[in-house]
């Protein structure tokens, strides 16, 4: 009986430790202050720091979600962190049968990582993987830096310079062997006159990795040729005096796309030389042209 009573006294406060209130102020993507001045750290997630890419977006997302007037919150307390902040699962109270879990929705929206180190029982791995595959929020970057590493002084990917000379752009991240996105995270550039292996083909990864090495997180100059059917800018891409389009063909990591660039004699000659030297994809006896691969895939 005494043991049962002792267990009851020890456990009941923990089970009943739920805070309620409204958000007074959002600090960052996973921290806010309640109306009674309690600082709450959302348990189970880790949002980008404010100085990281998507840090401000995460804070804005949280502000729009819980910081609006009249939004009532329920926090299931998990403990206290090393900074004295209350750790808790945060729910939005309302008419729903199950109150909305704010941390889960942030991970689903690509506004935070699942903190599997400190809170593995939160079980948000599947939600994070879906957001990553859909390239939502911070996952639009190919290799986002975890906040934990950023806080430890881990290397953050360089940002685009505030101003660039006319015709010069900042390659944000490479999607495949002949396509990349600019710093606005919207504009896509397709390397004109070449066709790199598609995903699932031999040498697709090699082509992508080489293009990353040549231009990702770097300022490059575009010689715009056209806009393709997918809205991508087709261009010759220059890194200093290096014609990246030509370089990829020279190394046997792309075909000369003769259909769209029939007069590009330099590309035609580079492909012929690479084929003769059996460089890159030409090491295979009968490499499949990406155009044929796409057609057969359909």
Mind explaining what this structure looks like?
This protein is α+β, with helices and mostly antiparallel strands and 298 residues long. The chain folds into 2 domains: 16-151, OB fold (Dihydrolipoamide Acetyltransferase, E2P), CATH 2.40.50.90; 168-297, OB fold (Dihydrolipoamide Acetyltransferase, E2P). Helix content is 29%, strand content 26%. The chain is built from 9 helices and 17 strands. The strands form 4 sheets. Strands 1, 2, 3, 4, 6, 7 and 8 form a 7-stranded mixed sheet that branches. A hairpin with a 5-residue loop joins β6 (73-80) and β7. α7 (244-250) packs parallel to α8. The longest helix has 14 residues, at 2-15. It is elongated, with a radius of gyration of 26 Å. The relative contact order is 0.09. Mean pLDDT is 87; it is low at 1-16.
Give keywords:
single chain; 298 residues; alpha+beta; OB fold (Dihydrolipoamide Acetyltransferase, E2P); seven-stranded mixed sheet; five-stranded mixed β-barrel; 9 helices; elongated
Compile the SSE list and pairings:
Layout: H1 2-15, E1 18-21, E2 23-28, E3 31-34, E4 39-42, E5 45-46, H2 55-66, E6 73-80, E7 86-92, E8 100-101, H3 102-108, E9 113-114, H4 125-133, H5 147-151, E10 168-176, E11 179-182, E12 188-191, E13 194-195, H6 204-215, E14 219-227, E15 233-239, E16 242-243, H7 244-250, E17 255-256, H8 265-276, H9 290-297
Parallel strand pairs: 4-7, 12-15
Antiparallel strand pairs: 1-6, 2-3, 3-4, 5-9, 6-7, 7-8, 10-11, 10-14, 11-12, 13-17, 14-15, 15-16
């Amino acid at each position: 009986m005494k043991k049962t009573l002792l267990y009851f006294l020890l456990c009941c406060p923990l089970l009943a430790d739920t805070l309620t209130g409204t958000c007074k102020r959002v600090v960052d993507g996973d921290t806010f202050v309640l109306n009674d001045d309690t600082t709450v750290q959302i348990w189970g997630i880790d949002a980008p720091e404010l100085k990281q890419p998507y840090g401000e977006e995460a804070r804005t997302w949280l502000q729009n979600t819980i910081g609006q007037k009249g939004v009532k919150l329920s926090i299931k307390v998990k403990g206290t962190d090393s900074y004295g902040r209350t750790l808790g699962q945060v729910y939005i109270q309302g008419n729903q049968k199950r109150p909305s879990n704010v941390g889960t929705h942030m991970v689903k929206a690509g506004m935070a990582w699942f903190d599997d180190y400190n809170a593995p029982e939160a079980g948000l791995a599947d939600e994070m993987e879906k957001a990553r595959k859909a390239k939502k929020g911070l996952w639009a970057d190919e290799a986002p830096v975890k906040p934990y590493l950023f806080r430890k002084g881990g290397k953050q990917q360089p940002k685009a310079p505030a101003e660039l000379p006319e015709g010069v752009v900042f390659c944000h991240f490479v999607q495949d062997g002949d396509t990349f996105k600019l710093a606005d995270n919207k504009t896509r550039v397709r390397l004109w006159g070449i066709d790199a292996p598609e995903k699932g083909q031999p040498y697709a990864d090699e082509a992508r990795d080489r293009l990353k090495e040549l231009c990702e997180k770097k300022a490059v100059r575009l010689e715009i040729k056209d806009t393709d059917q997918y809205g991508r800018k087709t261009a010759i891409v220059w890194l200093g005096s290096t014609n990246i389009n030509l370089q990829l063909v020279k190394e046997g990591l792309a075909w000369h796309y003769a259909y769209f660039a029939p007069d590009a004699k330099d590309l035609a000659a580079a492909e012929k030389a690479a084929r003769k030297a059996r460089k890159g994809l030409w090491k295979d006896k009968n490499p499949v042209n990406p155009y044929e691969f796409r057609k057969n895939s359909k």
